[in-house]
Amino acid sequence: MMVQEQLYFTANRKNRMALNRRHLLTAIAAGLLGIGRIFFSFQIAIDTVSINFVWSILFPLLISLSYGKVYGLISITFGGLFLYPYIMGPTNGWASLVPMLSLYLLIFLHGYGQESRNKEKQWFNHPVVIQSAYSVLRLLFYAVLFQPLIQLNGSYWPGEALTSIDASVVRVFLIRGLIMEWLLLAVTFVLLHLPFVKKALGLAVKTSQRFNTRVFASMVTFGLVFMLVSIQIQAHLFHDAPITIIDYRFTKELGFLLFFSGILFTLLSGVTIHFLERHLESESRLFKSARRYQTLFESMDDLVFECDEQGTILEVSASVLKTLKYEQVEVLGKSFFSFINKKNEKENWLEDIKTNETVKDEAIEIKTYDGDKRYWSMRLKKVALSDQETRLVSVVRDFTDYQYALNQIQKLNQTLEDKVDERTERLHETLLSLERFVQMVSHDLKTPARAISAYAEVLLEDERDSLNAKSLAYLKQIQGVTDDMIQLIESLLSYAMLGTREADAEWIEPTPIIETVLSRLELAYPETICMVDYLGELDRVYADRILFQQAITNILENAYKYKNLINL
Fold this sequence. Notes:
Catalytic activity: ATP + protein L-histidine = ADP + protein N-phospho-L-histidine
Largest sheet: 5 strands, antiparallel
Shape: elongated
EC number: 2.7.13.3
Organism: Alkalibacterium kapii
Helix content: 55-70%
Order of helices and strands: HEEHHHHHHHHHHEEHHHEEEHHEHEEHE
Protein name: histidine kinase
Pfam families: HisKA, PAS
Structural class: alpha+beta
Radius of gyration: 57 Å
Number of domains: 4
Number of helices: 18
């Protein structure tokens, strides 16, 4: 993993180095191209001073506005363009430092402004603001430095140079420079919108810029041709010169006129290109927005109808065709109300639309192409697209699956209720059978228990004198147990007869009952030794005597059964 990351960063570093190397070579080439083109600059002679229009400055300005301030400075330095003041105005001597410093400042400020705009556009990094600030600084340079540097030429400049210059000429220098640089800046921005220039500089070309080259070439060509034709017509009308389309004598005046005409039509083409780009970008955004909303419209689960004021369908979402199982041509042009199984709803709904502009129906039933039933929740709303155009838009929620599930639940509930009734009836019959069984069993059990009790009573009365004390105790125990058994059977019979029966509760003493149960268990389990420890006197208990005694019997009998020794 670390090796892969190292290779990744190495590759990125190489890409950045290659990209920077390309920018560096392009910047130097632009500087060399600019220094070569200064010899084609236009000159205007004022007295003994020549004023130059150095249009080749736009090459490093292109670099600075494309790559940033560093490459712009490299372009004018290593390309040699910073020497243009000495080449074009050798008699200026040390005063040539002023336009040289101005050139460095121009390239630096616009390169810095472009880098700042790439991060975030602010008012202070706008090209017009930057150029205005530069113009003020250039004015200060010329006002403060130009005349003193001219005066140094007599003593410290090795060649022939001016030692003084009229202030009006300095002002012309300054005004010429400012006008030239404003024009060059505008031309540079026009060139940066041309696809072939951006490709040459390695910059991305926007889709909205695809027509810029043709617009630029057409307007500049048409403008120059128009100027030549105008010159020819002027010469013919005012100087009786013959009209010809071939014999143009190129003069300095004609070149000057065509140069500034070319700049003028370049700027006009730049304005046209700017508005064309904005128009194409707006169209592109509008097209993307339309495609995005169309995609959402086609992919939404809700059903959407667009109708005219009478309910005729004009457009539907894809979900409508999928649900109704119709083709689009079979739906468009039909009445929206023709799909609804409610009679006479059209007039009512249209009337409601006029009054409330909205109709809402929670449940309507429709039929598909195959005759299947669907259930919709519908909302119909009147929408004004313009003052003359109105639409009815219906948004439908299909809840057929929910309705089918609800119907199924209702069927299952009904089935469940039927089963509950059936099983309740069967349970009632079972309880009746159980009651009859309990009555029969209780009757059958009480008969032998009464017989045992009667036999024990007979023995106690007739054989009392012949029986010892232990036998008499046993007979009394038998008689007590059978009496308890008879009472328990009668209690069970009461429960069976009444279904639920409140216990015959009373305050009872638990100690005698426990002792009675223990004495009976001692007879039933003579081999088991049981010791009972009472931790104080037992409190009275509020309970059914028979049931309490039976509960104590069950507890102690379990102890007798499963333990040889129990300590209670």
